[in-house]
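Late entry, evening session. Most of the bench is empty. Finally got around to the prediction I had been postponing all week. Sequence below, unchanged from the version circulated by S.P.
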Amino acid sequence: MVNTEVINVQKSIYYLWAKRLMDILFSAILLIVFFPIILIIIIVIKLDSRGPILADTPRRVGKNGKLFKMYKFRSMVENAHEILRENPKYSMLYDVYKKGSYKLKNDPRITRVGRFIRKHSLDEIPQALNILKGEMSLVGPRAYYPDELRDQQKKYPNTINSVKIVLSVKPGVTGFWQVSGRSEINFDKRIEMDADYVRKRSILYDLWIILKTPWAMITGRGAL
């Protein structure tokens, strides 16, 4: 559990029920429709590089600061996160990673298959399981790493209230900034867009984001 307060933006109980029902239906359909692609991804990951099928990544921050394991297909070399944080060879790259809002444009840890599935957000498909478990929603803010939130709030102290708003809801597999073509923005602008989504969220708004997501996947500019 991340020790943080949240600022709740009240929504009707009918919206919350409808959103949960939509999450269950869409994630179940997603797993069925993508099942052949899932099998292909599993095979090519195993053929391409050594390591597990799913990424062994640190836990993410969910609703009310609760930590959870987010499922993703492995798109990097084995133990990629430990390598970046602990291997002296990558110390300069780790500094760039932190300064760049925890993103790297040219990450040497990404595998050949990983580059393709990340570009088209196919690595995100297993998060349908997180949705079914109630840890995530189909549409919502980004699921941040604990150290990312801690470090970025120090860098951008004006984002503290936005973070509190964002952590009042479940993180999403896709979201507003991912489908808006602005996925490469810095943390301060990204967290404000996430907080703005929390304030404005509705079933129609969620459906609009869902409808825009396939194009974002095809063009490689957004998340699933």
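Two things to note before I forget:
The longest strand covers residues 137-139.
The two ends are 26 Å apart (CA to CA).
Will write this up properly tomorrow.
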